[in-house]
Design a protein that fits this description.
This protein is α+β, with helices and mostly antiparallel strands. Helices cover 30% and strands 20% of the residues. The termini are far apart.
Length: 122
């Protein structure tokens, strides 16, 4: 990649919970942005959505290696809490993946294989 406008340490950037990105002021008036997911994938280039400037983010990749695969971060924790609150609520028409998984587990029955099936497999 070409020249960076600047190199900024992650500690100098601000975490935006709403957008789920770290940001830093750009000279054009907008902000450079980089997500935790990008940092977890060892991407260290923050871009400005309004101009062509880029900055290099200086950080320790090990701080982000345990990042969940989704991009939501703390928002996913909030949605998990919401799901727990709604478990007893039968009026909820929208089935989430977690609810469908739990339903499948409730219907799952395990049986021991018969002796003849084990002998045939051997």
């Amino acid at each position: 990649m070409g020249a960076y406008y600047d190199e900024i340490e992650i500690e100098d950037m601000v975490w935006d919970e709403v957008k789920g990105v770290y940001h830093y002021p750009c000279p054009c008036g907008d902000r450079f942005e980089i997500s935790r997911k990008q940092l977890a994938h060892c991407e260290d280039i923050a871009t400005c959505p309004s101009c062509s400037l880029i900055i290099r983010v200086v950080y320790d990749p090990l701080d982000f290696e345990d990042e969940p695969p989704d991009d939501e971060g703390s928002a996913s924790e909030e949605s998990e809490e919401d799901e727990e609150e709604e478990e007893g609520d039968d009026d909820n028409d929208s089935d989430s993946d977690a609810d469908q998984f739990e339903d499948a587990l409730e219907k799952l029955t395990l049986t021991e294989p018969s002796v003849s099936a084990v002998a045939a497999a051997a």
